[in-house]
Design brief:
Blueprint: E1 5-6, E2 8-10, E3 16-23, E4 30-34, E5 40-42, H1 43-50, E6 54-55, E7 58-59
């Protein structure tokens, strides 16, 4: 059984980017967006423009652990 994962990254300015659940039709990379929704783009583009990105992804633990 897989556990839910929340995919998130922080850029060099400390802003948080979240996975939007969409995929870029050109690069096939996930589209991520700023937590406040002001900007979005493919993961590679965001990394080039605002990176390096640090992965903050969180995996939910099972209740019995």
């Amino acid at each position: 059984m897989t556990r839910p994962v929340i995919r998130a990254w922080v850029d060099r300015q400390g802003r948080v980017w979240m996975d939007s659940g969409r995929v870029s039709s050109q690069s096939r990379e996930p589209i991520i967006q700023l937590l406040n929704g002001e900007a979005s783009g493919a993961l590679g583009w965001v990394s080039k423009e605002f990176g390096p990105l640090d992965d903050l992804s969180v995996q939910k633990q099972r209740a019995d652990q």
